Amino acid sequence: MDWFxxxxxxxxxxxxxxxxxxxxxxxxxxxxxxVEVPAFVGADGRVRARVRNSGAGHYxxxxxxxxxxxxxxxxxxxxxxxxxxxxxxxxxxxxxxxxPFPWLADTWWFAFSDRADDAGFAELADxxxxxxxxxxxxxAGLYPETTGFSAQSATGGVWSWTPGYGHPDPRWWDAADAxxxxxxxxxxxxxxxxxxxYYLLDLGDERMRRHWREVVxxxxxxxxxxxxxxxxGLPHYSDLFADDIADRVDDxxxxxxxxxxxxxxxxxxxxPLTYHPCPAFEHLTTLDAMGGRAVADFVWMQTGxxxxxxxxxxxxxxxxxxxxxxxxxxxxxxxxxxxxxxGSSAALQRMLFWSHLLSGAAGHTYGAQGLWAFAEGxxxxxxxxxxxxxxxxxxGLPGAAQTGVGGRLLDGLSWWEHRPWQSGVEPAAGxxxxxxxxxxxxxxxxxxYVPANSFREPTIGISLDLQRLLLRELAAGRWTVDxxxxxxxxxxxxxxxxxxxxxEWELPPAHFASALPTFEDWxxxxxxxxxx
Length: 532
What we know:
Elements: E1 8-15, E2 24-28, E3 34-38, E4 40-41, E5 46-52, E6 57-63, E7 69-73, E8 83-85, E9 92-94, E10 103-107, H1 118-131, E11 135-139, H2 170-185, E12 189-193, H3 199-219, E13 225-227, H4 245-266, E14 273-274, H5 286-290, E15 299-302, H6 311-323, E16 330-334, H7 346-358, E17 363-366, H8 391-395, H9 398-411, E18 419-420, E19 425-426, E20 438-441, E21 445-450, E22 470-471, E23 477-484, E24 491-499, E25 505-506, E26 522-528
Parallel strand pairs: 10-11, 10-17, 11-12, 12-13, 13-14, 15-16, 16-17
Antiparallel strand pairs: 1-5, 2-3, 2-6, 4-5, 6-7, 8-9, 18-20, 19-22, 20-21, 21-26, 22-25, 23-24, 23-26
C-alpha cells in the first residue's frame, strides 16, 4: 500500500508480540509539532504507526521502548475530503477548505468480505464515485446478521480477531487496510462502524476498547468518520424477546457510551463521531438511542425497511432530530434498501432522497439488498431472509445511479443555504399526506420535488392532486423554472417566469390531470435571474 499517495506517513519499527500491547508512538512532524498515536502490529510481526501527512519533510517516530525511526515524506497529495462538524451548524464541512461536504453514501457493511475480489471491489468503488457518491459505510469486521468466527464473517479464512477473541489478527487487518485504501484512492470517504452492538457481549468492554484501538491506530490518519456501534443497544438476536430486554438494552447503551468516550479520547485527529440506532427499541436516531448518555458530532438515523410505510416515521424522526439543541447535522444512514423484502423500488429511493434533503437533512445514505452484505444469492448469505440477490446484481439497481443524479443536481445549487419551505408550494406534503410535493430553498433558489402519482390515493383511478402546481412566496422578479427528470438529471422544459409582489407563479398545465409532463416524479429547480 502506497500510504504517501493517501496522505499518510507510516513508520515501521521493531518486531513485537502481536498478542501484547503495541504501545503508543510520539511523532514529530516537519513543523516541530508532535502528536501521539496508538501503535499496531502488522502481519510481519513488526510494530507500526501512522500519522496524517501535515507537509513535506522529515517525521520522527518514537515508539515505546524502541529506537526512533525517521521517515522523509513528500508533499501532501490532493485526495478525498475529510468531513468535519462545526458547532451549531447543520451541515458537514470539508476540513481543509471549509466548504460544505455533500454526504452521499452507499452501504457496504461487509466491505472487507472476500465475496468480492479486489478487482471487483475496485470497480464498484470507481462506479460509485463516478455516479456522485462521496462516502461508503462499512463495518470493521464485527458484522451484523452473523456471529464471530462464522464462515460469513471471514476473509480468506481469517477473522478480525484470533480464535476465542484472543487479540486482533494482523493478517485480517492488513487485508482490510488494502480495501480501505482502495476506497480512499477512489475518492470515497469511509464511514467506519466499529462493531455491531451485540459483540460487546462477546468481547467484553476491555477487548472492545482494544478493537477500537486497532481501528484508530490504523485508520485515523485517513479521511474517515466514526460510528461507535451499529444498532447500538441491540443484544444477541436470540435475546430480543427476553423478559428483561429493556434492562439489557439500557446496560448496552451505557457501556457503548463509555466505549465512545474512549474513542474520542484516543483519536488524535478527533474525527466526527456518531452512533447508529436500532428501531426495534423505537430508537430511530442517535439522539433517541443515546440521549444524554454520550456526545455525538452528527446524527445518524435508521428508520426501517417497510417500503412506503417507512416514509412518515422517517420524516418525523428527521424533524425531531433537527429540532434538538444544539443543532447537529442529521443523515438517514439506513432506510429501505432498494429491493429489500421485494420492495423499496427506485422510485421510493428517489422519493426518500429528495424528501429528506428538502426537509433539512445534511445528506443521505443509499443501500441495496444484497450489496450491503456482498451476498452471493445463497441461503448462507448474511441477511438472506431479506431477499436472495447477489451483490453484482444489487450494485446495478437503478436507484443507485438515480440517487447519484440527485447528488449531482444538488451540487449545482447552494443547497447548504436552503431551508425547508413547505409553504412555498401548493399542494404540499404533510404528515397526513406524505406523497405530495416537498419544497426547500433560499431567497434566490427554490427546489420542489413531486413524488410519483402512483404513491398517492386515486381520485379517478389516478390522483388528480397535481392538476395545479403553484409556487408561492417567491421574491419579485424574473425566475427560470426548470422541469427536471430526477432519473436522468435532464431538463425537459424551461419556463421564464415573471413574479410580481404577490410572490406566486403557477406551472402551466401539461395535460388534463397534471401540470407535469408525466405521472412520474419530477423536480422543479428555480433560480431568480435578478440575483445572478
